[in-house]
Every structure is written in C-alpha cells, then in structure tokens.
Amino acid sequence: MLNQTTIITIRIKKEIKEALERAGINIPNIIKKHLEEIAWGLQLKEEIEKMRKLLENIKPSESGFAVKSVREDHESH
To answer: Are 39 and 33 within 8 A, CB to CB?
Structure first.
C-alpha cells in the first residue's frame, strides 16, 4: 500500500509564526507530530472499545479456577 499524504492549510497570526521560526521550531513537523499523536489516541480508543465489547460476552472463571489449574499442572509432571 502506498503511503498517501494530503495537504492541510492553516492560518496563524504572523507574529506567532515569526516567534516560532526565531526559536528554531519546525512548524510543519510539530503540527504533523501532534496530529499523528491525536490520531493514534483515537485508534487506541477504538481498539479498547472493541476489546471491551468482546470481554462483555466472556463469563468470569469460577472461584478457585486458577489454584485448581496450577495444582493440576504441577501434579501432571
């Protein structure tokens, strides 16, 4: 799959742009990084919601299941 890009144009006050540039800040890179972080967070929320829905249908294990399973595993060796 090709890594497709798109162009986003924004307007900011000239003074802000000049101040950022004087400070050596690469404005496009900062904006790109911030938007990527936001998108990653949204994707993470979507995946968590999918997992939550899957887990809703799974019944919890019975009380003592873990202890019983470990004991059975130890006894089988």
So the answer is: no
